[in-house]
Design a protein that fits this description.
By secondary structure, this protein is of the alpha/beta class. Helices cover 36% and strands 22% of the residues. The chain has a single domain, classed as 3-Layer(aba) Sandwich (Rossmann fold). α1 packs across α6.
């Protein structure tokens, strides 16, 4: 397909597979004209919304970032909650996608830290969306109790991601 593929691997840590494909631009008749989805995307793009993805997995960071960029958000990433708080102190973040399982500080504690008011964050009211492989009964409730605004399970479904982003930014047009 005219693309490239590479792999980075570290014994005991894991592997990162990178694929770059050259995909031809669709012809006008092949492009979806779903007005509601297009309107939601326009609203998000018009405000230059910044999303922060917090995950200790490089692969998960890349996947989530690409999907969020695809729907028009500017994406920043952090490999741990401490880095996320530093970024949020320096930059205005509109929405946060937080992995739940991270070493040292998990997503629940990280959300409590962000919402605590202890740190001089540019936007401490940014909604935190749980981003997790856990999809068990009761997990969503635990996330809401920790101060998260919503919940999306991995693997990330693009339509579900669009719905969540649209839910928090449709009134910002």
């Amino acid at each position: 397909m005219g693309g490239e593929m590479s792999v980075e691997s570290e014994e005991g840590t894991g592997s990162l597979f990178i694929f770059n494909l050259v995909i031809p631009k669709p012809k006008p008749h092949e492009i979806s004209t779903d007005c509601e989805a297009a309107e939601k995307m326009r609203k998000v793009e018009s405000k230059d919304c910044r999303a922060l993805v917090v995950d200790d997995s490089s692969t998960n960071l890349i996947v989530a970032a690409r999907l969020l960029e695809k729907i028009g958000l500017i994406v920043l990433t952090a490999r741990d909650p401490q880095m996320a708080i530093r970024l949020m102190s320096d930059q205005h973040i509109d929405i946060i996608f937080m992995d739940l399982q991270m070493p040292e500080i998990d997503g629940f504690e990280a959300t409590r830290m962000i919402k605590s008011g202890e740190f001089p964050l540019q936007n401490p009211d940014a909604p935190v969306i749980a981003l997790t492989a856990h999809a068990m009964k009761g997990d969503r409730e635990k996330c809401l109790a920790a101060g998260m605004a919503d919940y999306i399970s991995k693997p990330i479904n693009l339509q579900k991601l669009k719905q969540i982003v649209g839910k928090y930014f449709k009134m910002r047009a």
